[in-house]
Amino acid sequence: MIYEASTTAVILFITFVLFVLGLSFYFARKTKSAEGYFAAGGTISWQVNGIAFAGDYLSAASFLGICGMIAFSGYDGFLYSIGYLAGWVVALFVVAEPMKRLGKYTFTDALDSKFNSKQIQLMAAISTLIVSIFYLIPQMVGAGALVTPLLGLPHYVGVIMVGAIVIFIVATAGMTSTTYVQFIKGALLIVFSTVLTVAVCKNGINLTPYDHYNQFKTLDVLTENGKVSAISDETYQLIGQVEHAGYVFAKLNKDGQSRWWMLKDQTLTETLSITLKSDGTRLYNGAPKEERKFFQVGHASKIIVDGKEVDKTGPLGPFEFFETIENSTIVRFEKTKFQYESDEVNVWYSNPTPGNKIMRPGLQFKVDDAGFMGKLNFISLMLALFFGTAALPHILIRYYTVPSQRDARKSTIVAIASIGFFYILTLYMGLGAMINGVLDVESSNMAAPLLAKFFGVALFSVISAIAFATVLGTVSGLIVASSGAVAHDLVNKYMGIEMTSERKVYLGKLSAVVVGILAIGLGIMFKGMNVSFLVGWAFSVAASANLPAILMLLFWKKTTAQGIASSILVGIVSAMGIILFSPSMYVNYGLEASAAPIGLDNPGIISIPLSFLTLVIVSLMTQKQKKS
Amino acid sequence: MDHGPSVELGEDLASEKKSKLGLKLFFVYTLVYFGFVLINTINPTLMEKQIMFGLNLAVVYGMGLIIFAIILGLAYNKICSNYEDQLNNKEEQV
């Protein structure tokens, strides 16, 4: 899809970035000690910390990823909202205060507080790094996805920009500047998402979202043996046909333009297509990108209000909005891919979906008829989200920035309230994108910003700047966590190299730079993947590697150091192993999804119990060593 | 000691009580959460059923989980603060 930069957007964007950099400079002067760098000196108030939690947590995955998934697959995207938020319950009720008491700067500190074990120090630090990097990838991808429409620059430029700015923020003032960036971003995100939600409800649902919205043409045809034999409208010539995945696609030519159409009964319907020709050129709906034959989609094909069919609803109340969608039919777009002669053709065809299917799980996560594996995958996901939040290193370290346990608790509640409220809004924003003809089929991540654009360039610019800040906030938090893992956990503790506070800070900053550069590289590599999906993986690894260790340390007296270290190792290996051999990754490698040895995309249901089991068994086996 | 809190913390006499409460609330929430997961796996079409205000079970239960988490959080905070005030300030009162 073609995106153009707008001057307002660019100006707002630059202003925001300069402000953030200025803030970092200001705090840099105060951040000399290790306490200051890694834990903001323990001076952050619970109110600020609470919103900073929200700002840290509500990353590109939440805003872009979830809204995008809801826009394309309905309620299934909202499952992530529910799961992410439920995870905070675990964090609050089980983990927050104890972690505060146990740890100094990092998650590793807390785990190691009773043992002083090299194994734990090593494994926990590695786990922190792996989870942080897994979490970084979708953030960087999100950054690239945003900068493209905002500034008209290619994906990799956005990634490099974010990387550079964050490295600067973290390297100058660590946790302090990070906290305030996250606070600002959290507050802005919630305020403007509210504005967007209100706009969506006031706009209602229209069969024709806007004047120049594409009218999907249909053509009557005659068929023979399931394929097209003649077209009623003689201005179209039939060039070729392909049978694929149970559908028939026909290539038609009119006035020198060729387009792909899909056959349903005796009708051909327009589709969107991107064709990769063997010479490397790409055709969007049969023409080069510049000719702008590609268009945005998403509309209702039938709107029912109070049992009657209407062309448009007026403004809708928050409940009415959901109710109307439940009773209506929305046209979604499904993707498929086939070979035609020497071309690789990617087609998006319309799939009118009843509202009551959209408003419940099932379109993406096949709970209905996919059998055992489908259901297992779903449970696995919900498990990972539930247990993952409390185990994310960059969230855990935020407990160390407040002065007391009481503040740790209060800030967690502020976080839960703001995050919960935001997640409620995601369902409105995602559905709003689905029905207002704004979707770019190439990028589900763009759904929310494009929805904002529908309501005006000003809102679009602000939302994009916030989304960009969103990435900055989360990436900063992740890099602080990673730099802590390297400087404090690995070098200082594990390798036993004594350092002055200043040296530690210096090393922390150096690690920040290195991890930042790594993140940039990965962000460029993973372009195009839905960010929420990628984050789900970070959660799975965190839930498998970290949480069993935390829970057992807090609640089981027989936990030993070896038990903890082994469970982290098993958690990491099993979670990553299952992910690397999962159907989704196979598709990424270019192979068939069915060739994947384990049919699970989400490892949680296997890796989490496995990790617990390992901890228990190894702890019981090493009880003697503990006593001596 | 190099591990341990980054900030000086006093003794917290209420911590065991708070922990127990936290666990209880955690289990309650977990049950409700997994009720949601279970319905979706065993009887997904039930989620389409209209419950109130024209909303289906999926939306009501899903939103409900979010709101329930917030309510539980607020309740937990209130009770914990009470414990802390009662138990930790006892020494000063004597």
- By DSSP (H or I, 4+ residues per run), the number of helices of chain B equals 3
**Could you report the average pLDDT of chain B, rounded to the nearest whole number?**
81
Share of β-strand residues of chain A = 5-15%
Q: How many angstroms does the end-to-end distance of chain B come to?
A: 32 Å
Q: Short summary of the structure?
A:
By secondary structure, chain A is α+β, with helices and mostly antiparallel strands.
Question: Can you characterise this structure?
Answer:
The complex is a heterodimer of chains A (628) and B (94). Chain A has helices at 7-28, 34-39, 46-57, 60-73, 75-102, 107-112, 118-151, 155-203, 318-327, 355-358, 371-388, 393-396, 405-435, 447-454, 457-494, 501-525, 531-545, 547-555, 561-580, 583-589, 604-621, 623-627, and strands at 218-224, 227-231, 237-244, 247-254, 257-264, 267-270, 272-276, 282-284, 299-305, 308-310, 329-340, 343-354. Chain A has 628 residues and is an alpha+beta fold. In chain A, the strands form two sheets. Chain A has a six-stranded antiparallel sheet, with no helix packed on it. Chain A has a six-stranded antiparallel sheet with strand order 8-7-12-11-9-10. In chain A, α7 (118-151) packs antiparallel against α17 and α19 packs antiparallel against α21. The radius of gyration of chain A is 26 Å and the shape is globular. Chain A starts with 6 loop residues before the first helix and ends with a helix. With 94 residues, chain B is mainly α. Helices cover 68% and strands 5% of the residues of chain B. Chain B has helices at 15-42, 57-88, 90-93; strands at 50-52, 55-56. In chain B, β1 and β2 form a beta hairpin. In chain B, α1 (15-42) packs antiparallel against α2. The longest helix of chain B is centred in the C-terminal third of the chain and has 32 residues, at 57-88. Chains A and B meet through α2, α5, α6, α9 and α11 of A and α1, β2 and α2 of B.
